[in-house]
Write a structure and sequence with these properties.
Length: 267
């Protein structure tokens, strides 16, 4: 199923977005024109071979990279006005990366509350918000610990809590669990599903894992090799909450096989 998008005021709308990088005398086309709409409250996963432009596309959505051409709208607002980024649109976005990137000189609470500190929020309000988010992410009671005292999974929980501190409408996640062991990754997939269901955030997640994509997504968007373009969009209609046992079902495995076969064809 090939994607086509129109801007209907959804959470995110991309129209004919293209990215070129200048390299020496030539420009490299990293993303071919991409059009995609992500509805408010939807969980969409970007999947594809290495180098296909998944992270580039996520950075464009997050306002970290201005596209060479095309339109990006967040919450119905243009993200770019010429060379100027719309600050109001950016405030509705938050990103989580593969590495937690916590500041080692701040406690867990200090890391979670840092975005609020930068906005000038009162200390009591910051600490209350940090405590609430720590509880939501399953790290309540660890607010006074230092990042070095946490496991990898707990550090990533703190990073997600920090991203949620200012209550963004949209959460962008770039391989957030890629550095974790298999069991911790499974746990974090369940936790992300729970947090998403509890908060109603719009989530766009990049992963290399087909099973992770199918487990988490409302829709899986498969990108082709460079220049990245949308090759296939597969809806995933399993009821929520989903348990890890779902991965053993014939229906789940059928979607996994379809995606794996298509990846092999286009790689």
């Amino acid at each position: 199923m090939v994607s086509g998008a129109t801007d209907t005021g959804a959470g995110i709308a991309l129209r004919e977005v293209e990215q070129r990088y200048a390299t020496g005398a030539q420009a490299v086309l990293a993303l071919a024109p991409v059009s995609l709409t992500v509805a408010a409250g939807e969980l969409v996963v970007l999947l594809g071979p290495s180098g296909c432009g998944k992270t580039t596309l996520l950075r464009i959505i997050g306002g970290l990279l201005r596209p060479t051409r095309g339109e990006v709208r967040v919450g119905g607002r243009d993200l770019w006005h010429g060379g100027r980024r719309d600050d109001a649109a950016v405030r509705d976005l938050a990103m989580v990366f593969q590495e937690a990137n916590l500041f080692p000189w701040l406690t867990v609470a200090g890391n979670i509350a840092l975005p609020l500190d930068l906005r000038g929020e009162p200390r009591d309000a910051r600490l209350a918000r940090a405590a609430a988010l720590a509880a939501l992410l399953g790290i309540g009671g660890f607010e006074k610990r230092w990042p070095r005292e946490l496991s990898g999974g707990m550090r990533q929980r703190a990073a997600i809590a920090r991203a949620l501190a200012c209550d963004p409408g949209i959460l962008l996640m770039d391989e957030p669990f890629g550095a974790l062991d298999a069991m911790t990754r499974d746990t974090m997939n369940l936790e992300l599903q729970r947090i998403w269901m509890d908060t109603g955030k719009t989530v766009v997640l990049v992963t290399h894992s087909i099973t992770e994509a199918v487990f988490l997504a409302d829709r899986v968007v498969l990108l082709s090799p460079r220049p990245g373009r949308i090759d296939t969009v597969i809806p995933v209609g399993f009821e929520r909450p989903r348990s890890l046992d779902l991965a053993g079902s014939p229906e789940f495995q059928s979607i996994v096989r379809t995606l794996r076969r298509r990846l092999e064809e286009i790689s």
